[in-house]
Amino acid sequence: MLKGTFPVEKFKALQTPFYFYDIELLKETLKMVTTEANKYGYHVHYAVKANANPRILSVISSFGLGADCVSGGEIQAALNAGFPADKIVYAGVGKADWEINLGLDNNILCFNVESAVELQIINELAAAKNKVASIALRINPEVDAHTHAKITTGMKENKFGINLSLLGKVLDEICTLKNVKLTGIHSHIGSQITDMSAFRNLAIRVNEIQDELEARNIKIQNINFGGGLGIDYYHPNHLPIPAFDNYFAVFNKLLQVRPGQQVHFEPGRSIVAQCGTLISKVLYVKEGEIKKFAILDAGFTELIRPAMYDAHHRMENISSDEEIEIYDVVGPICESSDVFGKDVELNKTHRGDLIALRSAGAYGEVMASQYNCRQLPKAYYSDQL
Ligand SMILES: *Cc1c(COP(=O)(O)O)cnc(C)c1O
Pairing relation of β-strands 315-317 and 354-357? Predict the structure, then answer.
């Protein structure tokens, strides 16, 4: 949404801070991702952890996507939003018994298993219900995602997934278990990946893994590449819909798909990031010795990405057209990490102005907390204001 197109007059009547979702952009993005995936018959499961807002989930499920969940709560949220159970996959390094049971009771499509011990527990719990759980092994393909250290997951010695060197042992173990069925392999190498060579390397590595499995006479029905496609946080208006065409084309070009095999993806951020904006009000403009601080009524309790991942969000003063000045934009939380950006260019800013923090639809509202006894932010939608 271009500056100037936000409904500022309507915003003035609402209590800040709040999330504003551009539902038209979300739908355009979903149209693009499904069109591009359908070209190759690929299956897309939205990663619920990026944004579990019920309205957002129901729009996404209405486009026929599946859901990728990382907790029992997310499985429940996905079911509530209308995702069919046979399109729900469940990953996570620490699945509690009740969460596994919830997946079993609902006959979800697949458990993405991250360790040998977890395999045994799923087998036991499935046996108690006289069921056979479909499982995929989450493998660390040892592909460098070239992304922030706190969001890379596909390398060795990581809490996620099964190391390639241990794969043989795990496969031997599966043969001894009667209530799990190996139906797929899964990998997720990290997040906010903008360098397509990481995905190229991933597709090539998965070919090698498939060769190894076939040498052991194991045929795999599903290949799941996880999520991770990045977005442009610096230019949210330039290409608001990520290049899903290039992304899927990489896999189509390089992956050796066996007959009857299904290929799955789990994008989160790339679907929801650009449709969300955090709207906040300027409480004070504080003049320091050299710097000027714009102190907002939103802090890391509403949007933690800058404090947690050094993330950049574009900021716009949507109440002012005055000349550009430089501000440190900070929140009200009593922590020195509560800074949204240093030396940010904003139109001259006054108390009461509205500041838009762009590209906040992913890992924004869903990570909000009540630290400092604050209230969780509300959400508003472009088609319901
Ligand atoms: C977080 C996660 C995703 C989604 O990642 P994005 O970077 O938001 O696309 C997909 N799959 C798994 C297993 C995840 O943990």
Answer: antiparallel
